[in-house]
Amino acid sequence: MTGDEREAHVSESEVEIAADPAEVWQAIATESGVAAWFFPADIEPGEGGTVRLHRGPFAPDASAVVTAWEPPHRLAYEERGEAPAPTIATEFLVEARERGTCVVRVVSGIHADGEGWDHLAEEAGAGWLMSLRLLRAYVTRFAGLPSARVDLSVPVSAPNEERVRVTTALKDALGLTGLSEGDEFRTPEGAPALKGTVEHLGPYFLLLRATAPAPALFAISSFPMDGVRLSVNVTGRVYGSGATAVAERELPRWRDWLTSR
């Protein structure tokens, strides 16, 4: 994946999506598609091009060099770092399957010498699995629609080992306790107003597909975004012609609610 000769610490994550590779390519390799489920990005197409990832408020922005551009099946880029900073390589592989589905796999490699990188690679793999579930929901439900962001990260005064407990508390506060994937939900009074369907309930990751107050996806996790400190993170994407106005209204509501907790 990279010419960096330092030790590679690699993780792989994958999901199956009810779409063809061309639809997935639009979501992973175009600026409007990437912004609708992941970080906003400036993308210069083609091998040797530049990808600028705008990762706030979760992490600093990053620049990467495209190392593979093979539409619609393979996209790879590297965030190159001089030692002791690591080189981070990311590769998307999209493979068509029967009945109009495809498997999307992300191979993430941290190239660095020394101790502690295997743990960070595992965390990166878990983070990519969360992101791929968001990609799947976007491609199958909202592909091509205008989108706006409701993104925030709130530090938690608890060690990383407590993230399951933190997520369980979030489930309860959002009225999700006792529900399963596919169930309808409505958040209780006092929480940010959402109504829709549960897409995923995991030990430290929740994915909600909303119909009100607007078509939207909300991914809520207790996860160390920088690999070290635990935080509660909201990746919200509102879709449709009025998405920007709804997102601007909902962002401070989510921030005030999480901060107060």
UniProtKB/TrEMBL annotation:
UniProt-listed CDD domains: SRPBCC_CalC_Aha1-like (cd07814)
Gene3D superfamilies xrefs: 3.30.530.20
Domain of life (superkingdom): Bacteria
InterPro entries: ASHA1/2-like_C (IPR013538), START-like_dom_sf (IPR023393)
Residue intervals passing through the bilayer: none
Domain (Activator of Hsp90 ATPase homologue 1/2-like C-terminal) ranges: 19-139
Protein family: Belongs to the AHA1 family.
Name of the featured protein: Activator of Hsp90 ATPase homologue 1/2-like C-terminal domain-containing protein
Species this chain originates from: Prauserella flavalba
